[in-house]
Amino acid sequence: MLGINRKLVQLENEGKYIRVGLVGAGQMGRGMVSQIESMKGMRVVALADIALENVKHAYETAGIASSDIIATNNVDEANEVIRDHKVVATTEADLLTKIDEIEVIVDATGIPDVGASVASRAIVNKKHVVMLNVETDVTVGPILKKMADAANVVYTGSAGDEPGAIMELYDFADAVGFEIVALGKGKNNKLNYDANPETAAEEARQKGASPKMLASFQDGTKTMVEMTAVANATGYIPDIAGMHGPSATVDELASLLIPKEDGGIFSRKKVVEYVNGVAPGVFAIITSENEEVNHELQYLKLGDGPYYVLYRPYHLASLETPLSIAKAYLDHTPTIAPWHGMVAESVAVAKKDLNEGESLDGIGGFTAYAKILVKEEARKQNALPIGLVDKNVVMKKSVKKGDIITYDAITQTKRSTIWSLRELQDNWLS
């Protein structure tokens, strides 16, 4: 079987390429457009963002001539532009789901409701969906996967995102026959539950990133969400609410992230975890009861055993997303998906004292951060998923800082796609 790279070359030699629609021209989107433009057999033929200048900038920095960037919000014109081998710039994300010439849609917005809307409409229109939007996936991924399966298209998370990189380690270790004890990632900034767009503003400016996005990393939300995606894909769960989050080096992982009876911190095996100090890497802790296998692992300098670390010291974020696009289109295979349904949940926790009548403001904002819980505990507490938190959610009773926000503490001022999908999913999984 040909590798993805050879299949893409073959496609291009046949005068064809995978036609990609991308939603989001921020940091992740810009990098993806430039990376894809350097590849064989693939092109971002349409790019949507609320700011048209962001779209044009992304295309131009990828080396596409301004004369080949056609701004339109019309479906028929967009199809004609793509057939003419030019590219579409639009402010309407929904337009991409309707364009016949597009075969794969990528959501790179990080906004849960936008991701839910784009993904569901793309699936209805028989397009493969690649989610560089883990926030949507951990909220309504199972129902989106069910819809995609029924439509005979692929719904997948992205290679290069940490859940996708962890999944690659898991698939490798599982296929080889190792017992996998734990799966995890490093965190590269100190946990600060109080982080918000104001406290993150200066660092965000230096990095050219969104303050809100950076705050969602600093307050732990991104880590919780990413490991929830891994949990729902593998069936592994957090050992405790919020995970342990120890500090360690790579060499220390195999003696730390193991059961307590063997000197570690876990009360069980098959755990998802994060560690301060090994970022930006991802890892799997493996073991084997076979004497010859242990001898070979020790000979190969993976340690003294009986636990060993498989460690990947990098993940290339959106620069690897094209691999998931290619796998979906060429092999009809997802990189990562919620095969186990919902085994864990990222729930909303009050970032400050919240008062009756106060509106929430979404991920990375001033009002809430995420904590991972096992599904049963989240349901027992009637906990609100972090992906449902936005400006249309209003407190109908007060919640203290550090407490979980519950469904009965909030009301909605406007119905959204992700809320509707979540209701369908809850009814289906109940």
From TrEMBL:
Domain Oxidoreductase DRL-like catalytic: start-end pairs: 160-321
Family matches, as PANTHER family: SAF DOMAIN PROTEIN (PTHR37850:SF2), STRU PROTEIN (PTHR37850)
Domain of life of the source: Bacteria
Pfam name, any one: DRL_cat
Name of the protein: Oxidoreductase DRL-like catalytic domain-containing protein
CDD domains: SAF_DH_OX_like (cd11616)
Naturally occurring in which organism (per UniProt): Virgibacillus oceani
